[in-house]
Amino acid sequence: MTIEQKFVLVGAGGFGKEIKAWLQTYSSANVVQGFVDDTVAGDGIIGPLREHDIVADAGYIACLGTGHGRMAVGALLEARGARFGVVVSPMGNYASDVTRAHGGIFLGMCSVSSNVDIGKFVLVQGFACIGHDVTLGDGVTVSSHAFIGGGAEIGAKTTVHPHATILPRIKVGQNAIIGAGSVVVKDVPDNVTVFGNPAKVIVTRG
Length: 206
Hints:
Elements: E1 5-10, H1 14-26, E2 30-36, E3 45-47, E4 59-62, H2 67-79, E5 87-88, E6 93-94, E7 105-106, E8 111-112, E9 117-118, E10 123-124, E11 129-130, E12 135-136, E13 141-142, E14 147-148, E15 153-154, E16 159-160, E17 165-166, E18 171-172, E19 177-178, E20 183-184, E21 192-195, E22 200-204
Parallel strand pairs: 1-2, 1-4, 2-3, 5-7, 6-8, 7-10, 8-11, 9-12, 10-13, 11-14, 12-15, 13-16, 14-17, 15-18, 16-19, 17-20, 19-21
Antiparallel strand pairs: 21-22
């Protein structure tokens, strides 16, 4: 027997609409109750973040592309009593229990190996590959076709852009940006952008 799962999507923009489409593709039992958005009105919008009636029997999903955004709306809505769910693509390969990843989104044919420590509000896009014993901090974003080697540690709110490679046992700090196609061969500090092969710091943020 298939159990119906209800979702409320936070953000009615392009990514929110994409998540709705994926949910309906993944299972006919997935029901999207509506969108929460401060800037958009119309069909399917149940209200703004701070004022809508919390849907108690639905799992909320923060449909925002940045970890900063997902964590901010997550904290706001949880303070109002919202419960966050998880989106798990049935096409992915999982040796870790991603269904327990609070507010997580795992799309397409992503791969998550064994003993991966997953923080809150993590986004892993299709075809990304996460190696064994990796740590993904709160709000980490791993884009399509990125590879993170075994034993690597990725700090909170870091974004790994498409086709980037992070070698095994590398430590990436918090709030870092790994540029598209980069190959990270040494540790990355907090609050920097790295790019290239080998990846080098090109921007440092205060």
